[in-house]
Design a protein that fits this description.
The chain has 418 residues and is an alpha+beta fold. The protein is 35% helix and 25% strand. The protein has 13 helices and 21 strands. The strands form five sheets. The chain has an eight-stranded antiparallel β-sheet with strand order 15-14-11-6-5-19-20-21. Strand 8 and strand 9 form a beta hairpin. Helix 2 runs parallel beside helix 9. It starts with a helix and ends with a strand.
């Protein structure tokens, strides 16, 4: 073990937590002096939220506003609220967030929810509530998906999440294990976390540049339960790592991140795809997902667990049955190498190649942020109230790139770059 590794190993939990907060603000968010910050977090993430608040003000934030959620209160709604409650969402809150973003505020989300919070609740009510939130949040979310503002997501270990990952361990042991996994995947164990992130960011940009030079028209996937051809949007761009937002700030939206991603064509997906990891969506678990596409649209969908929730998800709108993102991740990524299933999309999507149902990122098209909705649609970009990633990669997945002339080139074999 190197001297630097030994030094990192000797850091206390509080020191690592402080490093995570600093990296989130300086590297993930790229917060600029004088900028406001809007942060969301659960009550169980209070310690990290406070550290982030401190580092944001040290970086020159003019104001930090944190919106806290309480999972116990969320469950009370399903136990005691009238039926009509599930078609409502606090539009005034999301309007306010959108107004903050338009005025220049940055956005930071702390992930760490109980992956099975709503698993025992009525799937119809869960679906209605999710749809109401999606509709209310849409105007603010568009500013994020268009990368008009700098934003990032980081994670905080929470008791319920830790228990889901390490059910055989005592609560304190499980929580410590989860924190260790978060620190490692977020690179705060490195001797210089900021430098480590800059090097990793450069590597992702190099891979994206290679794919942009190849200009594949489609990707062909083959693996257990998967035989799938996915066309890429016209004028698509591959991105990875950080990006310069419309407000000029440079941010890395997801921490951790191991992916390069682009926009598929909404009408050019055909074949069958089988998920390789469970999907934790809005407090419910969906397992054993397998879907079949025809001309870009899901025509059959099944799951071994959470079938009704999956159906409600893809019935959100027409765009929910189409794809808005394709991402490539080597099976040797640090998160996959850990052997852990996080039950959290922020982590699990960075352990495997994945696709996303719903809304496209306009930034993944040439000059996409300057195009009208009609122009985006003409290039194949999808529109939806949702954007939900699910994992299809493994060490048994092969992917070929298909050129504009129809030639086929090996891109990934057994989950690794060729």
């Amino acid at each position: 073990m190197t001297t630097a590794a030994v030094a990192a190993e000797q850091l206390t939990h509080e020191q690592k937590l402080d490093r995570l907060a600093e990296v989130a603000v300086r590297v993930g968010l790229g917060l600029e002096r004088g900028q406001e910050l809007v942060m969301t977090a659960s009550l169980d993430s209070l310690a990290l939220a406070r550290r982030i608040t401190e580092h944001a003000y040290r970086a020159g934030a003019s104001l930090v506003t944190t919106l806290f959620t309480d999972e116990e209160a969320a469950l009370m709604r399903y136990k005691f609220a009238p039926d009509e409650s599930f078609d409502r969402a606090p539009a005034w809150l999301y309007d306010g967030m959108g107004a903050a973003f338009k005025s220049g505020a940055a956005r930071l989300a702390i992930a760490g929810a109980n992956p099975s919070l709503l698993s025992s609740e009525d799937p119809e009510k869960v679906g209605r509530a999710n749809r109401a939130v999606s509709k209310a949040y849409r105007p603010a979310l568009e500013l994020i998906t268009r990368h008009e503002i700098n934003w990032t997501i980081v994670a905080s270990a929470t008791p319920a999440w830790a228990a889901a990952m390490f059910p055989e361990d005592a609560p304190d042991v499980a929580l410590a294990k989860l924190w260790d996994a978060i620190f490692a995947s977020s690179r705060v164990d490195a001797d210089d976390p900021v430098a480590a992130w800059k090097a990793h960011d450069a590597g992702l940009h190099k891979r994206a540049a290679y794919l942009n030079k190849k200009r594949y028209s489609a990707l062909q996937y083959r693996g257990p339960g998967t035989d799938f051809r996915l066309g890429l949007a016209d004028d698509h761009l591959w991105l990875g790592g950080g990006t310069t937002a419309g407000n000029g700030a440079y941010c890395i939206p997801n921490m951790p991140t191991e992916e390069v991603f682009s926009t598929p064509h909404k009408n050019r997906a055909d074949g069958t795809v089988t998920a390789t990891k469970p999907l934790s969506h809005q407090g419910t678990m969906i397992e054993g997902i397998q879907v079949r596409f025809e001309s870009g649209r899901i025509v059959e969908a099944q799951a071994t667990k959470g079938q009704e929730v999956l159906q409600k998800l893809i019935d959100t709108d027409d765009g929910a049955r189409r794809l808005g993102e394709v991402a490539l991740v080597p099976h040797s990524s640090p998160i996959a190498a850990s052997g852990m299933l996080f039950f959290n999309t922020l982590f699990d999507e960075n352990a495997a190649c994945h696709i996303a149902l719903g809304q496209s990122y306009s930034s993944c098209l040439i000059n996409g942020d300057k195009l009208t909705p009609e122009q985006l649609a003409a290039r194949g970009a999808n529109e939806s109230l949702i954007h939900v990633d699910w994992m299809i990669g493994s060490d048994k997945l092969d992917i070929d790139g298909i050129t504009a002339t129809g030639a086929t080139e090996p891109l990934m074999r057994q989950g690794e770059w060729v």
